[in-house]
Amino acid sequence: MSIPEEELKKELFDKANEEFKDEEFKENDKRSNLRDALLRLRSNKGSIVGLVIIVLIIIMAIFGPMLNDHDYRTQDLSRQNLPPKVSFLEKIPFIGFDGVDIKNQDQYKSKEVKENFWFGTDDLGRDVWSRVWQGTRISLYIAFLAAALDLLVGVVYGSISAYYGGRIDNIMQRIIEILIGIPQLIVVILLILILQPGISSITIALVITGWVNMARIIRGQVLKLKNEEFVLASKVLGGADKHLLLKHLIPNSLGPIIITTMFTVPNAIFTEAFLSFIGLGVQPPNASLGTIVNDGFELLQVFPHSLMFSATVISLIMISFNLVGDGLRDAFDPKSERR
Question: How would residue 207 be classed by pLDDT, with cut points 50, 70 and 90?
């Protein structure tokens, strides 16, 4: 039912109070895309579980080696290949933390070792607990550093290529196609052989070709956004190229950047572990998860604890980052918003 305009008077309306405004219109406040994505991510249980595991692993990588008195490099052949033993868990035999090996012999009594080693020791008598968390620290350091450099190079390269277009874009994309045509693992192995194995050489080798995927994704986003009205309006108002890229194009590509980075980290960890496993990674006395897996692989059937814990940590890292990456991909996709 409509009321003629001439009959509309002030007396027909009441002024809305502040309580009404807060209660009725709070849900309709404009929210940024980032905030919407975070809200959707919070409702994804798998991503939250993965995020919690990642945080716990990072905390253990920082503080884990400090929780006992054993150094990850100290060797003592009198205590080699000791099974895991934890005081408050040794009364539960089926979980394997009672110091008994696969032959049902208490190695701590037979070797007269009074101190407990929570993850056991390796074939050189080094504490596996300290080595696993020290190795996790190094592996995460390499992965995060490689991912950060991939992010920096890929975003700059891809955004410049897409924004200027034409001949510049054509030349830059031909360079990417050449790098894509060469298998990444071959490039990484050749570079490490030239630079000598080590943390810095692994990082450089991972970055040489790792940024290509990020550059292609950012190029696609910038190509889609650079003709949007808000970008054209900024350009008409005199916005410089640097301003348009840093204030409009790259911030509006934040979702794909975050998602790609989250998938870059587990790939870097897996590559580092593989290189260390074949002897081209971190060199002794330093330890990474790959070197620990390599050390325990030959003793797997007799002393499985040497391999089991490091392999478990690698698996948890890979699964957790992929869970969070999948959750972020769904969160930043507007089509997945629940109405």
Answer: confident
